[in-house]
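For the sake of transparency, this paper describes our internal protein records without simplification. The remainder of this section carries one protein's record, kept here as part of the documentation:
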Amino acid sequence: MTLQLPSMPTLAARTVAVDAPDDLLALAPPGGMAWVRRGDGMIGWGEVARFDSRGSSRIDDAATWWRRVTRHAVVRDDVQVRGSGLVAFGSFSFADASASGGTLIVPRYVLGVREGRGFLTEITTDGTHGHAPDLASALGPVAPAAPLPALTQEEGDRLAWNAAVESAVARIKAGEVDKVVLARAVRALAESPVDPRSLMPGLAQEYDGCWTFHVDGLVGATPELLARVDHGLVTSRVLAGTIRRTGDETADLAHAASLAHSSKDREEHGFAVRSVTQVLASHCASVNVPDEPFVLHLPNVMHLATDITGSLDHAASVLELVRELHPSAAVCGTPTLAAARMIDALEGMDRARYAGPVGWIDSAGDGEWCIGLRSAEIDADDPRKVRVFAGCGIVAASEPDSEWAESEAKLEPMRHALGLS
């Protein structure tokens, strides 16, 4: 079946240098998009083009549309840094069958900072560069973020969780899968609509090593890089194996050592590393995989982490890699198809875009995509409604109580941001 693409006007992007703002997120207009880590990143607002897709080909279809858009685009980039020029922000559902599907959005304006250099991009649909964009005119008077309203949350169904974990462990021991990742969602209801701009500054400050993002209603601060492509170099950060922090430095150092030597956590981590390495090896002339994981320290938890790098041997776009990498063993399990079927049978919910790819792509096919973890979904139809997500890797040695505690720790960033903890 041939993909029917919408008619597309010729886009023109003009990027100019501007003074780097001290705080990108403080300038975000209502309804905008964001991608920020340690002060670097981008905010986007307005919308000149959008592509929505569903089903098992949703990422491929979006990549095809983007190739068509960029083939005819006119780009003048005076800055030439990552994220300048023509870009699109996007997010995709975890599951093929999810009604949430996927979206690529081309903003009207992008304001970015890269290693202290500020840039502003204006994207138009008339195919001409026009005049250089002006930041004051582009932003206009920015309405401040709405104060965070009071929220109430539902209690998690611990009995259902215990039953799901116990069933998963039994099926793992029976040889159906080696690992499966089970997730849970906590629903919250606010007294008034939730403005994602009221959540992101706190997340970016507290979790500065994570990627703070907002794309199409999914907001969060994720620690897991699915794929970054930058001039032929591809990087992926794999996280699997988790322990909660205590707040006591001495105790946490001991816990970090315990995590690093835990056979259960190292087994879980190994599945995730292998699933990513196999994909990258098929696209790279060389792949570097460290012999041992390191312990990534976040304010609420510690993870076993491995940074995998490779040199692409052909002109693969970041979305091509994302399509093959998703879902990795870190968010689905091993083997992938059997684990996905087990998730469908045991979770009892649609993850929507939680644990799906979220990020951005430029006109050269480079970009940065993470896994949408430590996130919340703001309901598009009723922005008073929020779902907060967390997932845990289940292996043969898993126990329901410890997995519940791990999921509670992973819920903490978004709960705290929402004033729920």
